[in-house]
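User: Hey, quick favor. My workstation is busy. Could you predict this chain's structure for me?
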Amino acid sequence: MTTNLQNAADTMSDIVLSNAARASLLSLTQTTELMGKTQGKLATGKKVNSALDNPNSFFTAQGLNNRATDLTNLLDDMGQSIQTLKAADQGISAITKLIAAAKAKANQALQTSDAFDRSQYAREYNDLLDQIEGIAGDSGYKGKNLLGGGDNDLVVYFNEDNSNKLKIGAIDYTDIATTLGLEPVEVGSAGLLTTPLSANSAALLTTSLLTADSADFAAGDIISFKDGNGDEIWSFEVTSATTVSDFVTEVNSNLDSVQASFKAGALTFSVAEDITISGGQTAGAFASATVTAEESDWLTEAGINDTLSHIQSAIESVRLQASTFGTNLTMLENRQDFTKSFAATLEAGADKLVVADMNEEGANLLALQTRQSLSTTALSFATQAEQGVLRLFG
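Assistant: No problem, here it is.
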C-alpha cells in the first residue's frame, strides 16, 4: 500500500486533484511513513537503529557499549585471579596450622630431658616441614601458584588499556629453609655398645647378682659415665646386693642420653651422645669403653630453643604474608564489584540513547492507525464530492 500511495504522490503533478483530495492524500502518505518507522522501533526495541536515524546518539551508544564489553571481558580475568588468590590463602591457612604443630612438637621436646624422646620429636618435626612444602606445592590454580615463587607473580588488569593493574608477588614456600628459615633438624643416630658378662657358673639372668654370679664386678666397684668432653655425668657403685636388673634400671633412670638393656648374658648400651664407660674389676666389664653417636640437634635445650626462635620468626612472616594476600583479595573483590556496576552503568547510558520507550511507541502506533483511518475516510469523501460535480455535467 505504501508503494501505491507513493506512486500516487509522484504523479500528482500530472493529475488534477481538488485541494481537499490532495491534502488528504499527502496526509495519508505521511501517516504511512510514520507508521513504518514506529513499527520498526517496536520490532527492534530501539529508537535509533543506525547512524541514519541519529548519528550522534548511534555512535555515542556504540562507544559506550564497546567499553562495557571490554570491561566485562576483564571481569573473567578478575574472577580467575580471585580464585588463584583464594587457593593461595587456603594454602597459607593450612601451612600456619602445620607450623603451629611444629612449634608444639619442639615444646614437647623441651619438656622432656630424655635424649631418645627428643630425637623422635625431631623426626616428627622434620615430617611436618615436609608437609608444609608439600601443601605449598599443591596450592596452585590453573597453573599459577602464589606459594610457588619463581615466575608465579600474578598481574591483574582493571581497564581497557592495561594502565591500571595490580601485581601480586608470589612467595616460595616450597623451600621454607630459604624463605622462612625453617631447616630440618639433625635427628641423630644412636651409638651401641654390647658387653658380654662372664658368668661364674650358670647363665646370668636379670635377677643374677653382679658380684656373686659374675666375675666382672666386685663390691665397691664404681661404674663411671663421662660425656664427650670427659666430664663425668653419673656414676654407680656396685654392692653385694646389686642385681643385673638393678644396674640396668639405675642407668635408665639417671641418664637421659643412655638406654641400657640386658639380654642373652650381655649388657647393651644405646647412647644418644658420645659416652665413655669405665669401671669394674681389672680387665673387667668396662675398660674405658667409648661409644660414639651422631648427636641430635635437639639433644640440648639450647638446640631446641634455637629451633623455636626460627619457628616464631616463621609464624610472624606467614601471618604477614596472609595479611598481604587478604588485602589483595579485598581489593580484587571490590574492583570486581565496581567493574560490574560500572559496565552496567555504561550499558544503561547507551540504552538511554537508542532504546525506544515501548509504551510511548505503542501509543504512537495506535494514534497513527487512527490518523490513517481518518485520512482514508477524508480522501474518500473528497473523491465522492468530485464525482458528484461530474455527474452534474453528465
